[in-house]
Amino acid sequence: MFPDTIKKAEKAKEKKSPYGYDIDLEKFIREEAGEHERINKATEVPKKMRDTLLKVGVDPTEKERAGTFIQLDQTGIYSSQASKAVEIMGLNVALEKYNWLKDYMWKVVAPDTDKYTAHTALRESEGNIGGYFIRSKPNSKEIFPLQACMFIGDERVMQTLHNIIIAEENSELHIITGCATGEDVSSALHLGITEFYIKEGAKVTYTMIHNWAEQVEVRPRTGILVGDNATFINNYILTSPVKSIQSYPTAYCTGKNSRVVFQSILGGRKESILDMGSRVILEGKGASAEIVSRAVSKDKSEIYSRGHLAGRVPEVKGHLECHGLVLSDDSMIYAVPELVGSATDLEMSHEAAVGKIAEEEILYLTSRGLTEEEAASMIVRGFLSMDIKGLPPELAEETKRMLDMSLKGM
Fold first, then answer.
1. For the segment 56-77, what is each residue's pLDDT rounded down to a tens digit?
2. Within a 10 A sphere around the Cβ of 67, how many other Cβ atoms?
3. Which spans are transmembrane here (predicted)?
4. In which order are the strands placed within the sheet that holds 67-72?
5. What's the whole-model pTM score?
6. Using an 8 Å Cβ cutoff, are 57 and 402 in contact?
7. Residue among 71, 153, 77, 159 at smallest CA distance from 120
């Protein structure tokens, strides 16, 4: 790692994030936990873990998958590759294989963003490297998705990882990533750095499903660089309880006619605190962005739904949409839409609405024979079941199945 990166990280070790409450990192094990033996097949993961993988879209049979990566705590226990159009492996393996890869690290996410990026960078400098490397080759089109899982199985683990995804020119790449926790884990911390490089004419869809335990803290940090005529589509699903999550990925549309879509489905349950958002910086002529989120809060959950569009050059377009349903008096949704225009001849708009289930809808469904609880459940699931854009038909159907599975708890 470059000395300048380490120096920046050292200075930011105590730097609090402007979003989400602060976490005492010393409460979590740093060095000795999280070492596991590697496996030869994905189906060799323990049965309890295998069942959880399926819930987050990761299929241990690897049927119709272009490749797989699984990290358990701090160990990359498995990786495989079925397609010649793509590469997938642990970041530590990739750094040994490709000397040029270091030039992509910490370029879209700064190591001194906050204490969470700083601690991840410092661990990395000590040789404790987690996460994966994914690359689609130039002019390739792989319709089957790559799959990756970040799993926490040990108590009080601080899981750190750094993912690098590179879509080369005119390639198409689909990724399903699932993050989850073992049933016996009552407390843990997940710090995940992800950097995307979407080059000219490339397209990437990235579908993420989270299924954490109730006392897990989650702090992902993501940056996306989108080139000329390139497309990045991000689908995010979280409907299970978690202690807290704070995520605000930022996409930089520097290329002309570059396009970004963020779609989020959030279900706040129990005492979860979800501070979620997406930010797009429109800097290339003809660039466009769409941010769409659906949020439902129940029990004593809190949801902060953020969205930020910044148009910095003429002839860019952006739309921000946030809709929320509050299902209990003890829960809360706080919508924060932001539009910033610093050039002429641009189009940006936003739409935000937070409310409750309409009584007439409940009455209509109960008059058709449903109980009030069944009627409310149907309305909520319909509200959250928005179309997932940008996927091949087969993958879109599978994603809808995963979403339906996630919504059962709501």
1. 889 999 999 999 999 999 999 9
2. 24
3. none
4. 75-81, 67-72, 146-152, 172-181, 203-211, 231-238, 259-268, 288-297, 317-326, 347-355
5. 0.93
6. yes
7. 159
